Amino acid sequence: MQLKNGRCDRDHHKRNADVDEKDLFRHVGHYAQTRCVKPRAKMGGITVKQYDSGEILIGKGFPFTNSLQDIKCYAREISGTLAPNIKYFRYVGKKIELPKNKPFYIDKVQFSVECRNKRNTLIYTNAFATFPKKKVARHQQNSAFTKDNQFSISILVLDSTSRNQFYRHAPKTLKFMKENGFKILWGYNKVADNSAVNLMPILTGMTIGPAFDYPGRVVPLNLTFLERDLLNRKWEKELFIKRVKELGYTTMWNDDIMVTKLGLFSYGLFKGFLRPPADFYFRPFYSYLYSKKNARFHCVEGELASRRYLKLWKNFALKFRNHSHFGFTFLTALTHDDPAAVGLLDPDIYHSLEDLKKSGGFENTIHIIMGDHGHRIRSIQKTYTGRLEERMPLFSIRFPKRFKKLYPEKVRKLEENQNRLVSNYDIHQTLHEVLFGDLNTKTRGTSLFQDIPLNRTCTDILIPQNHCTCMEKVEDTSKVRAKHNIATKIDALLSDYINSTTSEMPCVHNYTFNRIPTIKILSMNPLARFGVRFIKNLIEFKFQKKYRTPADNEIYLLETTGNMNATTVHNNFVLNFTSRFSYNRLTGDVFLEIDPFITLSSTNCKIYILKDLCKCQ
C-alpha cells in the first residue's frame, strides 16, 4: 500500500509489521503467571465460590479451618449506575441470609455477598453476576430463531490489543482460532484514537465529531454525531444492541468500566445510559468491584478479576447458544496499560473457546474477537513498529458451518478481503448485512462479503491521515546507506526463498529468475510516525524536526519486482513477482516480510504465492 497525499494506490498481501521486529526488543516482555494473594486479615477462613452454573458455595478456605458456625452471610441485589448517576450502584430489596457448606442459587442478575462474624465485624464482601434460571428461560422463550438465515453475534473486545500483540502473547488461543475457522484481517486499520471513537463506527456506523480534519476533513458531517447528538442521545438509538431487540434478540452489555466514572460511552460528552441498554447489563456489578474491592489493581479475593468478566462472555453465549442473541463484552482494565497483559488471559480465552465448541456454542453464533486499537500507553508505542501496531488492532471472525453452507460466496469474498485495506465502517456494514440482510444506507463502508477494491485509499474509507498505515514513497534516498548493500541482500534473500520453496515442489523441473533493478522505497507517513492523535497535537508536530518526511523513519519498506520462468511437468509458466522487504536503515538489517506476491501470465489459474504453482498443472 503506497500513500500519495493520504491515498493508497495498491494493496497486495502486505504485512505492515512483523511480530518480532527488532525495534520492539527492549519493549516486549511476557508474564509467566498471576500472583493474586487472597487477603487474610479479616477472612476468618471463609471462602465464597461461584461456579459456571451460577451456583454459590460458602465454605471453609483451605488450609484455614476456622468454624463457620458464628459467621452469617447475606446477599442483596444491586442495581443503578444509570445516568446521571453512572458512578454509583444501589442496593435493591432486603438482605437474604445465605446457607453455608452447600451450593445455592440466587435468582438475581447481580448481587453482593457480605459476611460478618459474631462481633458483627465485616469479614467478607464481594459482588457476583450471573444469568438467573427464570430470566434465562423467559428470554429463551422469546428469542427463538425465526428464520433459517438468522444468526447470533458474540463480540469480545480486548482493550488496546493489536493483531501483532495478540500473536505475540496469546499463542494457545491463536492456534485454536486458526484450527477452527477464525478469519483474521491483516489490513484492518482503525479510524480514530481511543475506544469510544473506534467502537462507535462499528456499533452504529457513525463517528463522533468533529473528526480529525488535517489536511482536510475526512468524515462528512452527516456521518458524525456532534455534541448535540451526544447530549440528546441520538447515538443510543443507532446502537446494534438496541436495534436487534426489535428482531427478538436477547442482549448483553458486559463492559469492564475500569473505574467508576468511565466505561464505554460513559465519559466525556457521553453521560452513560438512561436505561439499561441490554437485557443483561452488568455495570452495577463492575461499579461494586471497582468502588469496594479495588478491582483496578486486577485482583479480587485472590482471583484475577478479568477471568470473572470473561466467564460472563462465555456463559451468555452458552446459555443462548440455540436462541438469537447479541452479546457485547469489552475487557478494559487488564490490557489497557500493559501490552503484555493479554497473555494472562490466553489460557482462559482458549479454554472458553474450547467449551463453546464442545457445547454447541459455535453452531448458530458468529464469534468476533477483536481489539479497539493497539497499545497507546507504554514505550512500545513510540517505536516505528509500535506506531503501526497502535493503528492496526486485532480483528478475527468465525462463521458457523450453517452460515458457510448458506452463503459460500460471502465467506469466499471475506477470505479474499483478509489482506485488503478495511476500516471500522466495513465491519459495521458486514454485521449490518448479517443482522438485517442489507447495508446501512446512512453510512459509508463496504461489507466484507463484497468486492473490496485493490486500489482503495484511506480517504475512501474515512481513515484520517494521522491514523493511516499506508506507506508513502521515500523521495529522498540519501539516508539509504550504500555500505548496507541493499540490492545484494535482496538478491540473496530472494534466491534463498525461491530455492527453498521450489525444493519442496516436485512439479518444478527447473527455473530462471530475473529481478528488475529498480527498488521502490516506502515508509510510514510522518503524522503517523510522530504519533499525532488529535488536532491539538499538530502544533507540536509542526515544530518538531525528527520526523519531517518518510525518509526520516528508522525502517523502510523496499519493494522490488521481477519475473520467473518455471518449467513444470506439463507446462511452462511465466510468473510476475512483487516482493517486499523490511530495511532498518540504522542497523542495515534486511529481511523478506512475507511470501512474494505472484501473478501468472497467459493462464486463467489464480495463485498468489509460489508454493501453490503446482495447483495449476
TrEMBL record:
SUPFAM superfamilies documented for this protein: Alkaline phosphatase-like
GO cellular component: extracellular space
Superkingdom as given in the UniProt entry: Eukaryota
Annotated protein name in UniProt: (pine wood nematode) hypothetical protein
